[in-house]
Structure prediction request, 467 residues.
Amino acid sequence: MTTPDPLSIDAFRDAGHALIDWLADFHAGIAYRPIRPDVAPGEIRSRLPAAAPEEPEPFGSLLADLDDVVVPGLLQWQHPGWFGYFPSNTSPASILGELASAGLGVQGMLWATSPAATEIESHVLDWLVDLMGLPATWRVDQGPGGGVIQMSASDSTHTAHVVARDIATRDGAATDDVVAYASAQAHSSVEKGARVAGYRHVRLVEVDGVQALRPQALAAAIASDLAAGLRPAIVTSAIGTTGTAAVDPVAAIADLAVEHGLWHHVDAAYAGSAMLCEEFRHHQVGVDRVDSYTWNPHKWLFTNFDCSVFWVADRAPLIRALSILPPYLRNAASDAGEVVDYRDWHVPLGRRFRALKLWWVLRSFGAADLRLRIREHVRLARELADRIEAHPNLRVVSPVHFGLVCFEHADGDAATDRVAAAVNLDPGLYVTPSVLDDRHIIRVAIGQARTTAHDTDRLWAVINATA
Prediction:
């Protein structure tokens, strides 16, 4: 049997049709698959050959291994019974956009290397400034700011810390003296991003009863560091923390950032999607005075990973901190200042055409439909919270601002753990146990693209039966 040439266009066409059919069947039947893989450590690797093949294999063998090797070892993030972590959604439009991006094979490091990749990205992110009620000056076509797509919020947050450090050291501060601040409930990527950016001093500021950063505590920490001769450089506000989706008081933190000359970064990685709906925008009052903002469409906007948006109010400090221009990257358009070169907007030089899938998602759903879906997820979350509050043995432990519900059993950690275990023993359900203030809790994140009231009813039935 002759194996087709791996560069054959005809073979590619046939294989592409087969793969799309496989993916369509996979998504059509995912609700009937167990969410958790039943494999032991090392089991997947044991199914692979000891050495790479010397001869080409037919595509049918590759496709068969999706069923035999890959899928049995996956946690099914696209399952409608997925309530764990935060959603990591995809959708047909996003999958096809990713496929088109891979097929085009462009390198978007400069405008000159792929003008369409750059200009579509700028335009789509300008659309989103308007759709999310963000300052118009963050549109790259209207003001000093602009947006860029990065891999994850961790990358965006790290970049913000790099820019803040650069500003502080240009002002004469020693690198070892710069200080970063964030809520004690901030995502671990804030502290990691600061450490990687060279900060020796990272202050995790105490929170209040609803897990939001206390401005008074931030003011005290800044004053203490100034008295010690240190240089406060950056503060990160969270709109939707990972632990409980808590919302920091952005406006009050902005007051302190402006007073002391700190770069103010906002991490809205999860909850940013909700800002498409006007009724949630009170959570981001004060963003007109922040310096940067990150949000992940790859969580709750049906766009597959990786796709993290990073806006800056003024792109000049960002470009100044990150731009290094060797001769082989020089070109007339860049030298004339007529274009955006996104290589200057983040740490990597190379970049994929990530905007294509986001563009296709926005066009395939439409903003009105996206709002409906987000609102329905929030409605389901509030309905679940009401059920929990009405139960004599259960209590919600934090406000339900968006699609995340956090609760505990009144009888303590062992009882809470028992409920979580019962849910996760069900092959069609998945939640994330966690800890808050040294107490065990259960996080229920409602936001998977195909989750409906049927799925939340199933979840509640298990919780109610166990509690």
